[in-house]
Specification:
Oligomer: single chain
Number of helices: 16
Shape: elongated
Strand content: 15-25%
Structural class: alpha+beta
Mean pLDDT: 79
Number of strands: 18
Low-confidence stretches: none
Helix content: 40-55%
Radius of gyration: 56 Å
Amino acid sequence: MTDKIYKLFERVKSIYQKRSLQFILSISFTLVSVAVMIGVAAGFSQRFVKSTERLAISNNKNVLDQMNLNLDNYLHNMMSISNTLYYSIIKNVDFGKDSASYVGSQMKLLYEANATSLVSIAIFSDEGELIAAQPLSRTKQNVDPVTAEWFIRANKQIENVHFSTPHVENLFINSDNIYHWVVSLSRSVEMTKDGEIVHGVVLVNMNFTGIEQICKNVDLGESGYVYIVDRSGELIYHPKQQLIYGGITSENNKKAAQYSEGSHIETFQGKERQITVKTVGYTGWKIIGVSPTADITSQYMQNSQFIWIVALIGVIILVFVNMVISSRVANPIKQLERSVRKLERNNLNAKVKIGGTYEIRHLGKTLQSMADNMKKLMDDIVKGQEDKRKSEMSALQSQINPHFLYNTLDSIIWMIENERYEGAIDMVTALARLFRISLSKGKNIITVEQELQHAENYLIIQKVRYKNKFDYDISMEKNCAQCATIKLIIQPLIENSIYHGMEYMDGDGRIYIRAYRKEDTLYIEIEDNGPGMTEAQVEELQNGTLRSSKGKGSGIGFQNVRERIRLYFGQQYGLDVESEPDEGTTVRIRLPATTIDKLEIGRGD
């Protein structure tokens, strides 16, 4: 995946590099403008969506709070009726002494005061016997109150008030055969009978239409609605309650009963909807507000469309403005670029087009001035390069020691006179190779392999001249053969080893030449087993102040090689010397490990 992204980036980069400045400015500004406009439009749209969602959540919460308040008043009214029946009637009556008519009259007054919301009120003994009731006074024969849920719950938790789910009231005999949907409140009470305390149960049946009226007046949008469940998820109210009981439709009431108070998002029957939950006090009931997400989104679709239309118009305007501005900026630069192309073709007489903004005009004037100066300096540069080439050639020629050449030729003549033709041929061959590499077609940079061949030819000649007073060994790692080096940097160091170490060795002299690499550095070592030098002499050699006791050399060759290396490769490269008296001397050349082609590219040759 990363490789694909990288390749795509490189491809886009390549396309950009091949395009004109006007195209790049237009596309870049357009892309940035479009991205900004899309970002702003998306931000506003998203912010509006979030705002609408928060508003819907807040509205639903406020509606459910009001509904909860109304429902709380309804339930509180039921509890007030229960409390009045208990504390104002039951507590003040001895059911063994007072007549049943007195209790009935008191209960009748209480019923008539709340007749709009009450269906019935009743008092039962602990055995389920009806003690008093209003307005109905007889229970059905086949109904046993003791087995009713409201009766069982009241006796099981005598400290609490208990509310039932909606049900049809079928406990009492009703002469008009009208059956009401009710919500029953039951509680355990203490009664006085013949001076003794006995237990009983108070039943208050509230008309369910009160809850229906509270819920029907709730507005949660076009498709929104509310329903009420008890602790176990059983429906207390639902606008489609009869359809749910009939199995025609369904509701997510069991899961909703597990929700905590607040706002939730759920998916039911493939539709996403927002659920707002509010818990009703006293009962543990939960009011569930349902708002389909489609209703909420429909409210902000038109506004979102308007925002995107405005963004599209803004993008079109910005694209047009970008094209005009990029043209004004790019055209003078294009003209300037054409003038530069003429200069690149060495047409220094070409006139640079000057126009556009102040900065571009200033750049044009600068280029024109530069072209004039280049034309003026060209002849000086050519002449200087020619002088430099001549100086380099003179310096290379000066590396050849005329005395060395004279002695070599004299040795060749001596060998021929003594009919040692094979040795003479070897010396002539070595001398020819030596001069061929020394010249190197005027090039100052050769390979390490060629430089070591030059050193070997030099050693062949010197070994004959000094009558085999020393031996030598040349080794090179394979990865060093094509590395670049300045020519004629090993010969002066070998010459120092011979003049100062090998001349008096009587066949025991050894010279080792090694070429190897360490990471990005090339090393060439020239080691001998001569008399060596003291630490002070080494320091004088590096400082260029060494004076030889034998009258041969003064370290000029050493200084010459070091300075040539530093001038060409930099101050971090050069020569290192390790030497101890009677142990020999090692001179180490440090160069960058690079090829001739890379070196010429890096130097712009």
